[in-house]
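User: Could you go from structure to sequence for me? I need the amino acid at each position, not a summary. Structure tokens:
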């Protein structure tokens, strides 16, 4: 890996890190990625050829960790692979190009001026103050403005979006974008809709935990199992009291499987049973039928056995 040379002597030279690195890349980068970047930035002032194995030994990192770090910076466009090695791109130039890309152009001031309302401008500045200590990178202004237009979020939802990412310790674009997509798919635009969404998610989490506990599951539910629970609670409209009947029946029959529980609940729903009384009555009727069937089978068996006994008596003596 050949890096450009700087003529200053090592003793009196210094390595400068652009401020935009701290606002744009540091939050998303892992500790290993930061170590690799800093070392390569330092080496960019000297004409040295190094290998991944050298980085691994010098930085006391495992070989795969160095590979992952290099891939991270390649994906970000910071590290560019050449035929004879790598070169480091200029972070400031990259961010400048982002700002002046056609159809996405706006300075922080322009983004605020072009906002649909003063309320939106206040939220953007509030995000800057709360989550970036007042030094938010200019490209974030563009992104926020674009997200406002793309998703139609109101100002409170946009602020909540950043607060959510901050609480999850994931204040970077990929996570915020993914979260915004998820909220949009759930038709969230206003804060009331977001509040209802969180309430529904909290209820789902509570029910999932309760079901897993009652079934004594020592693992997380799979996505398919969670989908089944959504079907029972939201599509069928069954409360926990009814679901618990199915859970007890599955446990008593040693069939603690979601497919069996789903079959029970789906059967009850198809028969338009929507209360515990209706379901208990239905289950009792099945028991009575099974009991009568068992009695009939017992009577037939006893009659048949008696007939054989009588026939055998013909041959006595």
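Assistant: Here is the amino acid at each position, in order:
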């Amino acid at each position: 890996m050949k890096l450009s040379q700087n003529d200053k002597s090592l003793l009196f030279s210094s390595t400068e890190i652009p401020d935009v690195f701290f606002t744009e890349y540091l939050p998303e980068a892992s500790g290993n990625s930061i170590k690799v970047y800093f070392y390569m930035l330092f080496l960019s002032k000297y004409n040295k050829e190094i290998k991944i194995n050298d980085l691994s030994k010098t930085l006391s990192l495992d070989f795969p960790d160095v590979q992952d770090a290099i891939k991270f910076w390649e994906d970000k466009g910071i590290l560019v692979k050449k035929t004879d090695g790598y070169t480091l791109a200029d972070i400031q130039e990259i961010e400048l190009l982002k700002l002046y890309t056609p159809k996405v152009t706006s300075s922080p001031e322009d983004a605020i001026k072009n906002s649909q309302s003063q309320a939106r401008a206040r939220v953007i500045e509030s995000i800057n103050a709360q989550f970036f200590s007042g030094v938010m990178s200019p490209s974030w202004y563009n992104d926020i403005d674009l997200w406002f237009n793309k998703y139609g979020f109101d100002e409170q939802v946009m602020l909540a979006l950043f607060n959510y990412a901050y609480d999850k310790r994931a204040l970077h674009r990929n996570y915020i974008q993914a979260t915004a997509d998820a909220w949009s798919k759930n038709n969230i635009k206003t804060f009331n809709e977001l509040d209802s969404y969180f309430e529904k998610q909290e209820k789902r989490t509570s029910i999932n935990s309760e079901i897993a506990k009652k079934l004594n599951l020592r693992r997380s539910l799979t996505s398919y199992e969670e989908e089944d629970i959504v079907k029972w609670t939201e599509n069928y409209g069954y409360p926990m009291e009814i679901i618990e009947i199915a859970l007890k029946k599955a446990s008593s029959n040693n069939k603690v499987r979601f497919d069996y529980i789903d079959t029970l609940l789906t059967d009850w729903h198809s028969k338009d049973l929507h209360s515990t009384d209706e379901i208990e009555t239905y289950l009792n009727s099945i028991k009575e039928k099974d009991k009568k069937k068992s009695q009939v089978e017992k009577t037939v068996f006893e009659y048949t056995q008696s007939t054989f006994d009588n026939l055998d008596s013909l041959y006595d003596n």
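One structural detail worth keeping in mind: The two ends are 108 Å apart (CA to CA).
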